[in-house]
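Dear colleague,

Thank you for sharing your sequence with our group. We've completed the structure prediction you requested, and as agreed, I am returning the results in plain text so they can be pasted directly into your records. Please verify that the sequence below matches your submission; if there's any discrepancy, let me know and we will rerun it promptly.
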Amino acid sequence: MNVQRPTSPATASLTATRTASATALPVPPAGLREGDKGPKVQQLQNALVKLGYMTKAQVATGPGIFGPKTEAAVKKFQADKKLPTTGYYGDMTHAALKKALGGSTKPPVEGPTGPGPTKPGTFTKPPVISAPSPNYNERGGKDIDTIVLHHTASNNGAGDLAWMRNPKSQVSAHYMVDRDGKIYQLVGDQKRAWHAGQGELHGVPTDVNGRSIGIELVNDGSGKTPFTDAQYKALTQLTGYLKQEYKVPMKNIVGHADVAVPKGRKNDPAPNFDWNRLRKGIS
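Please find the predicted structure tokens below.
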């Protein structure tokens, strides 16, 4: 005969905690966009249903498929959270979704006001705005060991961003730092962006694009237009993180002028760029 024993307050509390944990919705990792498929997309859809941005009926028509309805729901969520309404489920949207579901107490942040070094000499990846470019290919197994800085040759960040995202331009970079300090990511770190062209490293001919991360700074490159304080702060955080993440030696943090051939073909990131400020910030 089964006898039901009375439940103590402590046992009831523990049971409730375990039940809540067991029923908590998983938050998929960042990096999902329209056209993606699979269980991670379904996790995202379930979370959006939970928060009221999608209905079960909408999900049922394409479970695990990141289609137009899922993108529209992501955009509405982004707008409500005052994030860029790209429809791309990136780092900031992931953080906001996790917080909305009770998984984090830290709000998403954007631009150079994002999290700084966790301790002296240690960097976290700064918040980035996803702006995917089709202009990339595979690295071919090469390791990342170089960071190349460029100027965009204009002071119009929106125009520069549009050009690097245009398939006809055949150019791109991994990141672009706008004059207000916002960082845009156009190409994933593990892909080969098209930013350096024919080049060499320390006098040795090499495929610079295949081994490097390219960072564009919005600046006309004339040597007369100052780089902004916001740009230096954002660039220091980004470069410090990349240097740390990929173990890039300081000597391999260079400008396009240092790697372009023939010599003198480029002057990036511009004659008035403060290399000392950057090196001091990441050393």
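Summary note from our side: The first strand starts at residue 129 and ends at 130.

Kind regards,
the structure core
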